[in-house]
């Protein structure tokens, strides 16, 4: 059985929606200590609605202890999934993916399933996880590699006001994980066809995330998975910016939003 490692955020409910038809182990970092029963209730309620209102967004923000602008876009543009990342029966909840949790995880029966892992996380995976799965780990990245690496990459790239760079980077990539940050061999990529048709950089990020989740679903549907023979001949040594979460400040967020609208008008 394969494993999914992700976070308990609103946007990862769309990942769960994509993969819920597969038999998978889920390891979910619930750093905010969200209440599963409250999540069940709000997703059950709002998934029935055709249009999500501002009042609904407020409800989601309360249950999820905050939504970012991309998550607000996803809710209004695509609705609310029926389930969330903490919904699965085969799910281990944790506060972090660190060494202490890993040692506890080794005592769980799910730890025997080492066939491969799919990850979509806001933290860098430690080397002991890579060793545990014998390098059979595929990461979903919500931008086109190697042109926009790291955290909040497409948003931070937008601040450059380089329209061609944004067009080249908008989309998603799945790749094998290595010790670097988004440097492993690339398996598949898919560009957003019309990023400038979207109203904001948050729309670009949201659609890139959904594209990434779709690539993971397609990967699970392949016959030969985690064989290391399915990579594309794309050079990862191209000089490209590496963005970190600590540099994604409120000022950068405002600049990303304004820069996208400026490029959209060019």
Characteristics:
266 residues, alpha/beta, two-stranded parallel sheet, 10 helices, 9 strands, globular
Structure, briefly:
By secondary structure, the protein is of the alpha/beta class. 38% of the residues lie in helices and 15% in strands. It has helices spanning 12-19, 36-46, 54-64, 69-78, 99-105, 127-132, 153-158, 163-169, 201-220, 250-264; strands spanning 2-7, 24-29, 91-94, 117-120, 137-141, 149-150, 171-176, 186-191, 242-243.
Structural description of this entry:
With 266 residues, this protein is an alpha/beta fold. The chain has one domain: 3-Layer(aba) Sandwich (Rossmann fold), CATH 3.40.50. 38% of the residues lie in helices and 15% in strands. The chain has ten helices and nine strands. It has helices at 12-19, 36-46, 54-64, 69-78, 99-105, 127-132, 153-158, 163-169, 201-220, 250-264; strands at 2-7, 24-29, 91-94, 117-120, 137-141, 149-150, 171-176, 186-191, 242-243. Helix 2 runs antiparallel to helix 3. This is phosphoribosylglycinamide formyltransferase 1. Pathway: Purine metabolism; IMP biosynthesis via de novo pathway; N(2)-formyl-N(1)-(5-phospho-D-ribosyl)glycinamide from N(1)-(5-phospho-D-ribosyl)glycinamide (10-formyl THF route): step 1/1. Keywords: Purine biosynthesis, Transferase. Its EC number is 2.1.2.2. Residues 123-193 form the Formyl transferase N-terminal domain.
């Amino acid at each position: 059985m394969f494993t999914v490692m992700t976070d308990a955020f609103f946007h990862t409910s769309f990942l769960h929606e994509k993969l819920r038809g597969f038999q998978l182990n889920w390891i979910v970092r619930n750093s905010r200590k969200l209440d599963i029963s409250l999540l069940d209730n709000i997703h059950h309620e709002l998934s029935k609605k055709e249009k999500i209102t501002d009042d609904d967004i407020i409800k989601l923000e309360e249950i999820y202890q905050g939504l970012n602008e991309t998550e607000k876009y996803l809710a209004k543009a695509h609705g609310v999934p029926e389930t969330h990342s903490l919904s699965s029966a085969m799910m281990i909840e944790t506060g972090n993916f660190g060494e202490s949790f890993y040692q506890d995880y080794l005592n769980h029966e799910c730890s025997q399933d080492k066939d491969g892992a799919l990850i979509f996380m806001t933290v860098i995976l430690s080397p002991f996880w890579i060793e545990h799965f014998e390098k059979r780990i595929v990461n979903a990245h919500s931008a086109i590699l190697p042109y926009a690496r790291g955290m909040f990459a497409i948003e931070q790239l937008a601040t450059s006001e380089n329209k061609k760079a944004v067009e080249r980077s908008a989309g998603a990539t799945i790749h094998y994980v290595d010790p670097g940050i988004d440097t492993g061999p690339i398996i598949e990529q898919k560009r957003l066809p019309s990023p400038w048709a979207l109203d904001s950089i948050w729309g670009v990020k949201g659609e890139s995330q959904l594209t990434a989740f779709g690539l993971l679903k397609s990967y699970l549907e392949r016959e030969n998975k985690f064989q290391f023979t399915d990579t594309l001949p794309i050079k990862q040594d191209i000089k490209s910016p590496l963005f970190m979460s600590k540099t994604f400040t409120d000022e950068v967020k405002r600049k990303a939003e304004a820069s996208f609208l400026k490029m959209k008008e060019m």
